[in-house]
């Protein structure tokens, strides 16, 4: 066990939807990596639940194949795969068949004092039935936890309805609403940078910060998710949860501790302080787009309508917006958010752009003084970079150029670092809710997003087209440039 790994108590983790894509691609590989690092107790049980009639060995064969495809340590851990699979089991679970849940309760009943984690890796439309079956089978005891994936609704009323369903069976302290972005090392390092160092926090305000950019860009298209995606779009799929959560961690006030509720209280204050975007104001402050055929990387790719077969779809695959946080710390500082599919690069990052120096001492020969930037990279290469103006080496006076202090986590700390789901699954076992969303956070985020979507719908305008492999519609560039700023693009990504 590594020095950084904290042991957890014995537990039973039931993945409802255990034969689905999320379980095979993310959850089981994450648990396997925790096993390889010695974090899973010898008595821990991982139970996949699904409607298929499978034996334990049938299910283990599926997971063995999934690990060969999706587990980074698979080839280096040849002797551990079978030992891990010995802790994996399968039970038939059908939301409409109570006897299947009673059989699960009988299995779990041999260890009544173990922690029980129920992960609903299923469609939200099945949450109600699954929760009712868990309650009827007596599986919602004090040491049980419920983990649910986004989307938590598609608007505020539906989010409230889902939260009522969850609350009818589990307490808020037992409910873990997962956003995998919050499990990334760099998000947690944002807290460490701000509150563990004397350098940045005195500058983390409107007096010193010119603006903030948050970008989550993907090169992939919608692929086989088009059934879900066309009903959601980029605003519901990405902005309402991932980007707003990142904004909260950037903008929040220092909590009195890093325990769950103090952190989430401060995030909630940020969401409540967001500048409302409604009606014409929403149309002026947002840009939505939909990708057309183009070259993404080196590959010619189809447009959204060709990829999905939905020729008349008005679903946005790109969103850019400008907002502000209306409080004393951030008054007047623009926050620019953008996300999209089929963009020029795959990158997720936060850019804190500081104000320019008030006066240059170096004259024209010294060159233009670029403002300092703190760049927090979430993917593909997690790390932190600080851009500074430095003297270019050589005689002949002071010629300045921009250079970077670069801390890439892979280079600084070496080795493989736990991925987001690994950390979040173990936090759920421990009962640590710091990196999970609270009910009021989810609902107030929807309350902010819903008027934007309503303004788009009422305008009757279609998303702006953009070529796959570009940075989105030209209007997204204009959104920033009309304020005299530009989107940050890191040429180190290639």
Give an overview in words.
The chain is an alpha/beta fold. The protein has 2 domains: about 140 residues, 3-Layer(aba) Sandwich (Rossmann fold), CATH 3.40.50; about 280 residues, Dihydrodipicolinate Reductase, domain 2. Helices cover about 35% and strands about 20% of the residues. Strands 16-15-14-13-7-12-11-8-17 form a 9-stranded mixed beta sheet, sandwiched between helices. A 6-stranded parallel beta sheet has the order 3-2-1-4-5-6, with helices on both faces. Helix 1 links the parallel strand 1 and strand 2. The longest helix has 26 residues. It is globular. It starts with 10 loop residues before the first strand and ends in a 13-residue tail after the last helix.
User: How many individual domains?
Assistant: 2
CATH superfamily of the largest domain: Dihydrodipicolinate Reductase, domain 2
**Main sheet: strand order:** 16-15-14-13-7-12-11-8-17
Continuous helix count? 15
Largest sheet composition: 9 strands, mixed
The CATH topology of the largest domain is given as: Dihydrodipicolinate Reductase, domain 2
Structural class: alpha/beta
| Proportion of helical residues | 25-40%
Distance between the termini: 37 Å
Residues in β-strands, percent: 15-25%
Please tell me the CATH architecture of the largest domain by its name: 2-Layer Sandwich
CATH class annotation of the largest domain: Alpha Beta
Principal-axes shape call: globular
Number of E strands: 17
- What is the residue-mean pLDDT, rounded to a whole number? 90
* Computed Rg: 24 Å
